[in-house]
């Protein structure tokens, strides 16, 4: 009996240690951790609501800019989202309703991003060799002088 | 007559008197600790279970979105990409990606019979310019790249703090609150899709715009792609174009030999692309 008491004391101490670990763990491990796996489920909900979507699509732009939207939808740039050239709608019309002018890039560089003939582009995509298309220095020429970006003709 | 020695062995020491236990000794203390900790255990276990149950009960949490009904996949047709970089700019704006870091980027491959030249100036964010290579190029094309949202993802496996995970709808994400910025996952990813943000000092990566797709919108890169190179789909929808393409077309994944089961599928991928 005398020896059994020694074992009992060790068991007591071990139990206390295990309990202390459990208590500490209870405070440190987040509530939703482990609900679906070894991660915090709350973060999934946080990621869903991390911010309002900035890009809203051409239809949302058309709610105010009906004429431009119709023109674009009928022309060769019908698959080119407004937000490619003018930036996200969410930066133009802010959450609080204030309106900020969107970027309007009139330089040839904007058009060149897609239509300059360079290695890598698929051959069937309309491209121009800028040096042959215009005479003189490129900087002086704006494509917009001849081409309407909202309804371009070749 | 031999005297019978009935006397037992002399008692060398008297039977020790049981010491009177002190008012509050070690034994008492340990007993109390045991009782207390037992109570705390029950208290904590009870609390955790109740919280978990409550959380499950209100699972959608304000969103009319159920992740059981979706399983996302991504399809990239490299033969359509014109390298305009709209996706890279849209991604940076939508997700506030720091300059010089990319959640998605475009690579240009210029290939000859003997050599291959790959470039990606600023991740393709400003588009591509003319390129001079020192060999005779026979073909060239653009390849958009991003997180492949692998099913058997190495990045989640190496995370020591449970900050990286894959959701039930198939998106690999990082919990910035748990992430300690050790960058094991950055090294583990064979596609270079992750980086340590210089702003938050935690791992950051493509989330397939989880804040958009859970609201029924497309990821920003897919939204702006003018040529239909990038497509986002849901494998749990019978008539989904991406699902049909994966089922019927000859699709390829990046670094298939690593068996990470990428969920970004490629059409018309060249052997030179890694």
Q: Could you describe the 3D structure shown?
A:
Chain A has 154 residues and is an all-alpha fold. The radius of gyration of chain A is 32 Å and the shape is elongated. The mean pLDDT of chain A is 91. Chain B has 274 residues and is an alpha+beta fold. In chain B, the strands form 4 sheets. Chain B has a 3-stranded mixed beta sheet with strand order 9-1-10, with helices on one face. At the A-B interface, helix 1, helix 2 and helix 7 of A face helix 1, helix 2, strand 2, strand 4 and helix 5 of B.
What is the gist of this entry?
Chain A contains 8 helices and no strands.
SSE layout:
The complex is a heterodimer of chains A (154) and B (274).
Chain A: H1 2-28, H2 41-48, H3 58-62, H4 66-74, H5 82-86, H6 89-92, H7 108-115, H8 130-133
Chain B: H1 26-57, E1 72-77, H2 86-95, E2 104-112, E3 116-119, E4 137-146, H3 154-158, E5 164-166, E6 172-174, H4 184-188, E7 195-196, E8 203-204, H5 210-213, H6 220-224, E9 230-234, H7 241-248, E10 264-267
Parallel strand pairs in B: 1-10
Antiparallel strand pairs in B: 1-9, 2-3, 2-4, 5-6, 7-8
Q: In which range does the helix fraction of chain A lie?
A: 40-55%
CA-based gyration radius of chain A:
32 Å
Largest sheet: number of strands, sense, barrel closure of chain B? 3 strands, mixed
Largest sheet of chain A: none
- Uncertain segments of chain B are 1-7, 9-19, 46-50, 52-62
H-E string of chain A? HHHHHHHH
Portion in strands of chain A: under 5%
Low-confidence stretches of chain A: none
Helix content of chain B: 25-40%
The secondary structure category of chain B is: alpha+beta
Query: Which series of helices and strands of chain B comes N to C?
Result: HEHEEEHEEHEEHHEHE
Q: What is the strand tally of chain A? A: 0
């Amino acid at each position: 009996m005398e020896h059994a008491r020694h074992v009992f004391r060790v068991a007591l101490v071990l139990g206390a240690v295990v309990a202390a670990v459990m208590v500490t763990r209870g405070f440190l491990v987040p509530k939703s951790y482990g609900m679906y796996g070894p991660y915090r489920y709350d973060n999934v909900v946080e990621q869903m609501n991390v911010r309002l979507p900035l890009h809203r699509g051409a239809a949302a732009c058309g709610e105010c800019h009906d004429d431009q939207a119709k023109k674009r939808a009928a022309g060769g740039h019908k698959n080119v989202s407004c937000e490619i050239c003018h930036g996200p709608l969410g930066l133009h019309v802010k959450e609080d309703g204030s309106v900020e002018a969107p970027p309007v890039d009139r330089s040839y560089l904007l058009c060149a991003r897609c239509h300059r003939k360079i290695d890598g582009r698929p051959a069937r995509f309309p491209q121009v060799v800028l040096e042959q298309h215009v005479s003189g220095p490129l900087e002086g020429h704006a494509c917009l002088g001849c081409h309407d970006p909202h309804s371009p003709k070749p | 007559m031999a005297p019978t020695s009935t006397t037992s062995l002399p008692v060398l020491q008297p039977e020790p008197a049981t010491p009177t236990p002190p008012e509050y000794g070690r034994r008492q203390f340990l007993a109390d600790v045991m009782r207390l900790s037992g109570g705390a255990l029950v208290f904590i276990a009870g609390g955790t279970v109740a919280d978990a149950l409550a959380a499950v009960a209100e699972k959608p949490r304000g969103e009319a979105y159920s992740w059981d009904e979706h399983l996302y996949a991504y399809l990239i047709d490299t033969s359509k990409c014109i390298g305009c970089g709209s996706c890279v700019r849209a991604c940076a704006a939508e997700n506030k990606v720091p300059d010089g870091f990319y959640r998605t980027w475009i690579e240009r491959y210029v290939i000859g019979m003997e050599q291959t030249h790959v470039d990606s100036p600023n991740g393709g964010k400003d588009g591509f310019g003319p390129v001079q290579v020192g060999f005779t190029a026979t073909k060239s094309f653009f390849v958009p790249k991003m997180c492949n949202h692998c099913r058997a993802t190495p990045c989640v496996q190496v995370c020591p703090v449970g900050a990286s995970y894959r959701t039930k709808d198939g998106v690999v994400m990082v919990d910035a609150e748990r992430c300690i910025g050790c960058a094991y996952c950055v090294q583990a990813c064979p596609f270079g899709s992750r980086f340590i943000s210089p702003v938050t000092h935690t791992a950051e990566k493509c989330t397939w715009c989880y804040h958009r797709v859970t609201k029924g919108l497309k990821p920003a890169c897919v939204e702006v792609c003018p040529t239909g190179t990038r497509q986002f789909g849901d494998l749990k929808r019978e008539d989904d174009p991406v699902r049909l393409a994966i089922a019927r077309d000859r699709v390829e994944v990046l670094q298939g030999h690593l068996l990470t089961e990428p969920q970004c599928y490629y059409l018309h991928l060249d052997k030179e692309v890694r």
